[in-house]
UniProtKB/TrEMBL annotation:
Upper classification of the organism: Bacteria, Pseudomonadati, Bacteroidota, Cytophagia, Cytophagales
Organism whose genome encodes this protein: Pontibacter flavimaris
Requisite cofactors: Zn(2+)
One MF term in the entry's GO annotations: hydrolase activity
Protein known as: MBL fold hydrolase
SMART domains referenced in this protein's UniProt entry, alphabetically: Lactamase_B (SM00849)
Length: 211
């Protein structure tokens, strides 16, 4: 599986395109808001002859959902989230303008992701892991074959997701990291929602929140 990261919006949010030799592609957390950001996403998909088959959110804070409607409409795919984060998604229109996104267009989920579910596309398989704490319905996507995690805002390089937003809880987040992520092999690469990638082993050793 090839992991392509495009960084969008003032929050510097990492949008991920996952694809393999079949050219089937999954878009995770599209943060593209401005027209040029949408065009950058579209150009990468076109230039690489990718076929978008799934649209997934790790969680539904505004910076991760700004491009949901654009991707859903452009590629005719339904949005998939964890049901526990639907209220988070539905609240975005109430504050989007205050954050500088007056043109935010809402896209509601077409289906719900469940813990342990397998997401299959092309020759690739991802496992859904339920990792609340930063958001009540946060999930991550684990590719066991390639030892990669698309991790949203749970675990960052030497940091963790904030827990002061509605539905956040510090103890729950730490529990999610220790029981869902730190049980994975040390060599697993984590692609977070912000900043550079890291590995499970590195964070076990150097993350000041988890020693």
């Amino acid at each position: 599986m090839k992991v392509t990261c495009l960084t969008f919006n003032p929050f510097q949010e990492n949008t991920y395109l996952l694809h393999d030799d079949t050219r089937e592609c999954v878009v995770v957390d599209p943060g593209c808001y401005e027209r040029q950001e949408q065009e950058e996403l579209k150009k990468y998909i076109a230039d690489n002859s990718l076929k978008v088959v799934r649209l997934l959110n790790t969680h539904c804070h505004i910076d991760h959902v700004l491009g949901n409607k654009f991707v859903a409409d452009t590629y005719n795919v339904g949005l998939e989230i964890h049901q526990e984060d639907e209220q988070v998604l539905r609240s975005v229109p109430t504050y989007a303008a205050n954050y500088g996104f007056p043109l935010y267009a809402e896209q509601l989920p077409a289906s719900y992701l469940k813990e342990g579910e397998s997401i299959k596309f092309g020759n690739t398989e991802l496992e859904v892991l339920f990792t609340p704490g930063h958001a009540p319905g946060h999930v991550v996507f684990y590719n066991q074959a390639d030892k990669t995690v698309i991790g949203g805002d749970v675990l960052f390089r030497q940091s963790i997701g904030r827990t002061d937003l509605p539905g956040g809880d510090f103890d729950t987040l730490i529990q999610s990291i220790k029981t869902k992520l730190f049980t994975l092999p040390d060599e697993v690469t984590v692609y977070p929602g912000h900043g550079p990638e890291t590995t499970i082993g590195y964070e076990k050793k150097y993350n000041p929140f988890l020693r």
